[in-house]
Specification:
Length: 463
Amino acid sequence: MDDKPCGPRKRVRHRVLLSSVAGCAVLGGVLVLPWGQAAPPPGPGARALAAVTGGVPAALPDLAALVEERERHLRKRPGDARAWAVLGSARVEQALRLADPVYYSRAEKALRTSLKVRPGNNAPALRGLAALANARRDFAGARRWGEAARRLEPGRWTAYPPLIEASMGLGDDEETGKLLERLGDLRDGPAVRARAAAVYRERGWREDAAAALADAASAAGEPAERAAYLERAGQLAWERGDREDALRHFREAVRTDPDQRAAQAGQGRALASLGRMTEALSAYRVALARHPRPEYALELGELYESLGLRQAAGVQYGLLRERVRLAAAHGGDEDLVLGRYEADHGDARAAVRRLRAEWERQPSTAVADALGWALHRAGRSREALPFAVRATEGTRGGGVRSAPYVFHRGMIERELGRYGAARRHLREALQINPYFCPLRVPRAKAALARLGEPSVQAGPGPS
């Protein structure tokens, strides 16, 4: 049981540790043996093993070393269920770090082999399958696997992060809160604070989210872990329109871990908003070369489009479709990003069908926003408005303060003749982040200009 150490219990554990290494000393965090030699630091595989089993990001070279070690071990001992579970979990982490869905299938094979070898009392494999389902955006499946793992080990803190991610993906705010509270009872530390920050962001508690991420980054044990938290802090800064702070976090993340490609894409986003287009395009290309997420292809395509480079934009949109197809071939679900693309650059009616099905599976805030916008783009603004409200009203689960979501709501309201509400929400979008999208910011400003100032005689107008 991995309960959070506190008070006297922590001191007891400290005494146990000292007695267990009798005759040794600990200097500056390094174990020193009686004859004066320091114990060697953990190797790459050991570092990755600690990260994977502890639910924190691992460095790509360390993950490769761990995978090689487990595969070599399993060729000799194919009946080792725990080794199969570790291998599968490492493959999930590789899929996320490389944005390569091919690793989904490899991870699933290893995790299911672990369950076959040990069908009962195999919580590590169940947790790995929950993480895999979250990576594939199968949040209902992640909840099932995660609950099965929690039933076996209700007091193990690592059972809770996959369940929290699944509940967020399913739009279940009440359950997310309960799970986070239980996680906090069991454990404190960087991974827990980072998970709490994600929940705080969804609820619109930006200051709390930023503070939790700052704590997580300062307390992180390995560079890859710290870089991951810095990248998330950069995202928060970007969402509130603080371009310079976002760029600082993203750059520090890349310096800390050169394989932190999400931060590289973040640099592209921030640099574009600062008008440094050559640097921005270069940053996006570097990110996509090693981390080809369809979201980044969409962002780069829209940046090219804003610059009048439609052919270059089309190349990126083609890459987006290719990555979505590859994900689907390996059990991944990228219908959300594909629906967003279709709504603005393709077939809006197809986007509605795709996102309606996504809403039935997992009715999160992000899906509500995307479906509402697709309905609007398909000429069904009256149907769209309730989804836009759901995505932006804190009382309805849409606590996250998102400039794109509020922009979508304002444009839908404008189409419906709700000019007072439209004016208010378009202004709010530009206040939240005046640089949120190179294509949509000019549209928001133009729509506000056409709406003009409210007439004193007309009153506030419909809202």
